[in-house]
Please model this.
Amino acid sequence: MQPKITILVFGFLLYFTCSSSAQKIAMSFEEAANQGVPFEHLDSLYKSAVHSDKDLAVFKSPDEQAKLRRAYAQMLHDLGIFLKENNFHWETQVRSFNRIYFNADGAVDYFLYNFAPEQISTEKEREFKQLLHLFVQHYSFPLKAGEKFAQCSPVKYLDR
Model:
């Protein structure tokens, strides 16, 4: 029986510009900045998956954007299943913001996250980071593009 996981994705952001040679890294926004790879730098290297100006987007048509939304939601759902299969429990609803940088083949280069203040203990975040790192090592986004791209969104994680 497949475990039930609910991850609510809100506000598919349209203004996101993000390309870099990276190795599958999962870390908080703060860690990325401290390690010399702030999101502003990554944003200058990766093209936006979607954008209000279609010329600046990787996925331009409404059909491509709909496929992207479905694939992105499925990726977050798959992450939830992976976490549950690895005995990770949120214990309560947790808010986060993710910015994910993909190579042209759909592999994750960087998965940056930021939890809302006081949403998660240091130990729970450490456990999440370890599992997220394992997840991005093997996960491939189902959509491919001719170039590196990025997508972001606020997320609510919770156990079901």
Observations:
- The first strand starts at residue 5 and ends at 9.
- Residues 5-159 form one domain.
